[in-house]
Design a protein that fits this description.
Structural class: alpha/beta
Distance between the termini: 28 Å
Helix content: 40-55%
Shape: elongated
CATH architecture of the largest domain: 3-Layer(aba) Sandwich
Number of helices: 21
Number of strands: 22
Oligomer: single chain
Radius of gyration: 32 Å
CATH topology of the largest domain: Rossmann fold
Strand content: 15-25%
Number of domains: 3
Strand order of the largest sheet: 6-5-14-16
Length: 694
RNA sequence: GGGCGGUUGGUUUAAUGGUAAAACGCUGCAUUCACACUGCAGAGAGCGCAGGUUCGAUUCCUGCACCGCCCACCA
């Protein structure tokens, strides 16, 4: 397919990669339906759909290099392999980025209106969606683009409605006033998993609440004095001897001068603060629970913009922060402030906007988790799903044991509309992602793809979306189809920066895969990433393995050149055989290289089966560089001058090279396909569909 | 607070119940015969700390420290 003289040039990844990718796409082999006849047994992996919020990062590159590695090997082994790509509309995150763009231009989504804003969203989706696809193609992944899905596709919306209906008929979906996490900047509720906790150096204020008809008082400790304006009670632990005689009595709430009861509840920790806690049912999750149990009134003193309401009386219109200052100074003046201590504690912020989360009571849709969680736990316990690493199994079970009902509604414009419900009320983006392995294959219709590829074989994901996504896919599929959605859950390493910190835009420590590909070539980047996957839960980012990858590609290229020169391309067509018995009168060097090749095949297979991708690659590296290049290639130089050995040495060179290329193909697909295309082998196919060595 | 992972040459990481391997970097030599993105030779760690098991531990156990990640309603 290439003019041979090209092969005399140094390896040029840029030129080769684009050309080879087109070559693959043209072949149709990414599509399992277009694979040769020998590919029968279905095999399926799904891409974790990237958010349409920006560009791919190094985590995507790693994850999909592994997805592709697995797929390519299975394809070569004769499976009818499908690697299904797609993207996620990313509800809150998606809306947030577009809104931010608008604000940069001095506009906003409110100014645009819902209709126009959604148009913008789709425009964004088109632009960024395509760009993400192209970025993924640069990595060389062999996914079937004809089956590409987006979580807001027409038929995907249908799947979402079908799932919602199903749960509703079961009676598991309900609407109610519950405590939720409210982001005043995104103007929506968010789930517990979307709240991020940051340590904050704050204060612990000790406030005296006078007892009714008594000169005495009870002291409460709080980090949020402003919420006292909405207090409905003081709570103590029933076993706390200090306060036993106060239970049932009344206290006077300072500033508001309202009488509130003193109640007893197990949720109160005797050891913390004074052992007495102020109860604000409308603005704290625990307090809400206590309020329910004791039938306390709920005073909503903070509104959805993060401002104090009329209910707060003295602070109406102030921000939470302003109100806090006002309340503290008022308490100080009126002698209700006993003391204040420095206190560092965790403050929940919106993972998207970093705005402090206001817990508040709101009318929201929920999905009851009781039966669904039980399903997921059962699947894990019965080992219907294999967890890699194995420790994930217990983590999975433990999370589902304590999971609360899922707040599935969001007050956004971008997303799946909640059936019945009006504008501006959409489903949590994860409600649709949870259906990914089903909806992408056509569910709820009984499509051919669904029967062929579902349940899928393996799912790869980052730790951070283990519950958010993986957990929810498990119970969704089990409930809706009665089957686990995948046989294996592989939680891959997180790529941290060289100092071991999480990569983030704000820290400025992110790595751009495209820059790396430009610098080293895609094969070298894949090599470098996979090299570092050795079974740990983290990878400390280093570019060194990528440099090694680049050098390795160069070595591969030059060794291949040598072999081809010896064989005398392009005239002869060697029928090469995998059977070593076809080689006779072997020299010591011949025997060693053939033995080492066999050992390496075993080693690579064993390690890939164990998900030890880095070790598999290292075995290949050592074999090719040291056994083949340093030893055998050198030995072959003498053998090639001996007329009695010449022919067989040529065949062995070609045999070992061809098999090395096959083994390396899932790791470094571009260069191996390119070199393979030059090998003078009878009846060969493209490397992507060649037989995996045995 | 709970869980998980890590702590090995300058750096990033392997392996292993009997005194440690690779990549990158470093030093010296070689070389226009596939490859300087090369070859050969070499320096460099006794494997976080403290106990224990063992004939023997970097490897197993216990505790501690530090780093990181995840989860959690401590006001």
């Amino acid at each position: 397919m290439l003019a041979m003289d090209k092969f005399d040039q140094p390896y040029n990844p840029k030129e080769t990669e684009d050309k080879i990718y087109q070559f693959w796409e043209k072949s149709g082999y990414f599509n399992p339906d277009k694979l040769p006849k020998r590919h029968k047994k279905p095999f399926c992996v799904m891409m974790a759909p990237p958010n349409i919020t920006g560009h791919i990062h190094v985590g995507h590159a790693l994850e999909n290099a592994l997805n592709d590695l697995i797929t390519r090997r299975k394809r070569m082994q004769g499976y009818k392999a499908l690697f299904l790509p797609g993207k996620d509309h990313a509800g809150i995150a998606g809306q947030y980025v577009v809104d931010r763009e608008l604000r940069k231009q001095g506009s906003s989504r409110f100014e645009l209106g819902r209709e126009k804003f959604l148009e913008k969203m789709w425009q964004w989706m088109k632009e960024y969606g395509d760009s993400i696809d192209n970025e993924l193609k640069k990595i060389g992944i062999s996914c079937d683009w004809s089956r590409k899905r987006f979580t807001m596709d027409e038929d995907y919306q249908e799947a979402v409605r079908a799932a919602f209906d199903y749960y509703q008929k079961k009676g598991w979906i309900y609407k109610g006033k519950r405590m939720i996490n409210w982001c005043s900047s995104c103007q929506t509720s968010i789930s517990d998993l979307e709240v991020e906790y940051l340590e904050e150096k704050g204060k612990l204020w000790f406030i005296k609440y006078p007892l009714s008809n008594s000169p005495e008082f009870i002291t409460v400790a709080t980090t949020r004095p402003e919420t006292m304006l909405g207090d409905a009670a003081v709570a103590v632990n029933p076993k706390d001897e200090r306060y036993k005689n106060l239970i049932g009595k009344k206290a006077i709430l300072p500033i508001q001068n309202r009488e509130i009861p003193i109640v007893a509840d197990d949720l109160v920790d005797k050891e913390f603060g004074t052992g007495a806690v102020k109860v604000t049912p409308a603005h704290d999750a625990v307090d809400f629970e206590i309020g329910q149990k004791h039938n306390l009134p709920s005073y909503e003193i903070i509104d959805k913009r993060g401002k104090m309401t009329r209910e707060s009386k003295v602070c109406e219109g102030l921000t939470v922060k302003e109100c806090r200052e006002k309340v503290v100074s008022a308490l100080r003046e009126q002698n209700f402030l006993l003391k204040e201590e420095d206190y560092s504690h965790n403050v929940g912020v919106c993972e998207r906007s970093k705005t402090v989360i206001e817990p508040m009571v709101s009318d929201q849709w929920f999905l009851s988790m009781k039966d669904l969680a039980a399903q997921a736990i059962r699947a894990a316990r019965k080992n219907q799903i294999k967890f890699i690493p194995a420790s994930r199994k217990q983590i999975f079970i433990n999370w589902f044991k304590q999971v609360k009902d899922w707040n599935i509604s969001r007050q956004l414009w971008w997303g799946h509309k909640v059936p019945v419900e009006g504008e501006g009320e959409v489903l949590d983006t994860w409600f649709s992602s949870a259906l990914w392995p089903l909806a992408t294959l056509g569910w709820p219709k009984k499509t051919r793809d669904l029967t062929t590829f579902f349940p899928t074989d393996i799912i790869l994901s980052a730790r951070e979306i283990f519950f958010l996504w993986i957990g929810r896919m498990v119970f969704s599929a089990m409930e809706l189809t009665g089957k686990v959605p995948f046989k294996v859950i592989y939680t891959h390493a997180t790529v941290l920066d060289s100092k071991g910190r999480k990569m983030s835009k704000s820290l400025g420590n992110t790595v751009d895969p495209l820059t790396l590909i430009d610098k080293y070539g895609a094969d070298a980047v894949r090599f470098g990433l996979v090299w570092q996957v050795t079974g740990h839960q983290d990878v400390h980012w280093s570019e060194d393995p990528l440099i090694a990858g680049k050098k390795f590609c160069n070595k591969l290229w030059n060794a291949s050149r040598f072999v081809l020169q010896q064989i005398g391309i392009p005239n002869s067509q060697f029928p090469i055989s995998n059977k070593i018995s076809n080689f006779k009168k072997l020299t010591k060097a011949d025997k060693i290289i053939l033995r080492e090749l066999r050992k390496t095949i075993k080693e690579v297979d064993k390690n890939i089966e164990k998900f030890q991708f880095g070790q598999a690659l290292q075995a290949l590296y050592d074999f090719f560089w040291h056994e083949f290049c340093d030893v055998y290639l050198e030995a072959s130089k003498a053998q090639l001058t001996d007329p009695k050995r010449k022919e067989q040495t040529r065949r062995i060179l070609l045999h070992v090279l061809a098999n090395s290329l096959k083994l390396l193909h899932p790791f470094t697909p571009f260069i191996t396909e390119e070199i393979y295309s030059h090998l003078p082998i009878k009846d060969k196919t493209m490397l992507i569909v060649e037989n995996w060595p045995k």
